[in-house]
Amino acid sequence: QKALEADPSKKLCYYYLNKTSRSFAAVIQELDDDLRDAICLFYLVLRGLDTIEDDMSLDLEQKVKLLRSFDTIIYQKGWTFNDNGPNEKDRDLLVHFDVVIDEFLRLKPGFQKVIAEITRLMGNGMADYATGEHRENTSVATIKDFDLYCHYVAGLVGYGLSDLFAASGLEDPSIADDKTLSNCMGMFLQKTNIIRDYREDLDDGRQFWPKEIWGNYAENFGDLIRSDHLEKSRACLSAMVLNVLELVPDVLTYLSKIQNQSVFNFCAIPQVMAISTLALVFNNLDVYQRNVKIRKGEAVKLILASTDMDNVIAIFREYIQVISQKNETTDPNFLKISMAVGKDFLGA
Ligand SMILES: COc1cccc([C@H]2O[C@H](CC(=O)N[C@@H](CC(=O)O)C(=O)O)C(=O)N(CC(C)(C)C)c3ccc(Cl)cc32)c1OC
Q1: Cβ atoms of 28 and 17 closer than 8 Å
Q2: Neighbouring C-beta atoms of residue 132, cutoff 10 Å
Q3: How many angstroms separate the CA atoms of 66 and 282, rounded?
Q4: Is 43 in the pocket of ligand 1 (CB under 6 A)?
Q5: Which residue numbers are catalytic?
Q6: Element holding 11 (H helix, E strand)
Q7: Closest by alpha carbon to 181, among 255, 273, 260?
Q8: I need a surface site. Which of 71, 204, 219, 239 has the fewest CB within 10 A?
Q9: Gyration radius of the chain over CA positions
Q10: Cβ(188) to ligand 1 under 6 A?
């Protein structure tokens, strides 16, 4: 805390961290010294990128230019951005982004390089996506497109965090060797959120579910909410959950490699929240009507329990059991789901 008093711009960075995501911000602040500032700033740089990508009021050319140059912008002392639309929820962060840049430039060069490289890859990935053929309603056609989009916005974060863990010396450098595992850490969170956020995204005119999946159950993406369509909507939801369940073994393998306690908590908590959310959305048609979220009490219980690998495996086992119990023989995906939940636990 004394470090925060001495350095007002660092204090502001933690103010923005807490403003953009209170619950997760607390977990970041528990990280051991060398990593805490690096991951706080990585989070804020990513949030800055996200705020630009999300802002529909920016014209495409300006947005693409910003996305493709964000990895150099973070080195430009004094840079700020005031053209975000008024309703952009994190516009305040970009208005004061010079403070983030000042603190970024105080990081060890090793940390700066990791953050800049992921920013470069993600900014260009987002720009490619924004100018791609799906520009109109940001629709995702194939499962391959779905995986590529989730890699850009979330898998790359896993890459960057593994590199920061290695650079900090708190984790064995081998944590960054298997990029598939790092990628899966992001995919699992992002794909679960995309299922949970179906209705919110539909109402915002955005669709991230791959047509290769939902096209088997509906003519139009919005048909899934119709009450005369329930059996097909339920089957579509199962197919989406099935696609995410495949990632469970790799997520558990990644977590089992972590040595440092604060790093383990930081990595495990979002993953157990995600498996809990996945069990909640499975076979739950409310997903098509509103944004379903796990109860606060459930979340607190999960946070307290996610401190070691045995507990995390027990939590995954519990929620995979819930999915198995909710699985219905009338569901065309019944067998595939029961195979997936069976396989998920042959491994660990
Ligand atoms: C090894 O990889 C990780 C290890 C630990 C945490 C995360 C991952 O967890 C949060 C967790 C988080 O931010 N939770 C929110 C709740 C929510 O968004 O549903 C919160 O608790 O407020 C999250 O969701 N994302 C956003 C992406 C998924 C796009 C990467 C995220 C954004 C920036 C950073 Cl530095 C980290 C993460 C990891 O990223 C893969």
Answers
A1: yes
A2: 11
A3: 38
A4: yes
A5: 149, 196, 206, 266
A6: helix 8-20
A7: 255
A8: 219
A9: 20
A10: no
Q: Quickly list DSSP for 62-124.
A: HHHHHHHHHHHHTTSTT-----S-TT-TTHHHHHTHHHHHHHHTTS-HHHHHHHHHHHHHHHH
ipTM over 0.90 threshold: yes
The pLDDT value given to residue 133: 58
| Model pTM score | 0.95
CA distance 337 to 344: 10
Which residue out of 157, 161, 178, 181 has the highest number of ligand 1 atoms within 8 Å of its CB and is therefore the one to mutate? Answer: 157
Could you tell me if the CB of 158 is within 6 A of ligand 1? yes
Ligand 1 neighbourhood includes 238 CB (under 6 angstroms): no
Phi and psi of 210, rounded to 5°? Answer: -70, 135
By C-alpha distance, which of 244, 247, 16, 43 is closest to 160? 43
Quick one: tokens of 112?
Answer: 């700066």
Q: Determine the Cα angle at 54 with ends 279 and 185, to 5°.
A: 40
- Are the CB atoms for 257 and 206 separated by under 8 Å? no
Token duo for residue 320: 């995979």
Both tokens of 148, joined, read 């590529």
Q: How many CB atoms lie within 10 A of CB 339?
A: 13
Q: Whose CA is nearest to atom 4 of ligand 1?
A: 267
Q: What is the largest CA-CA distance in the chain?
A: 63
266 CA: nearest ligand 1 atom: 5
| 271 touches 255 (CB < 8 A) | yes
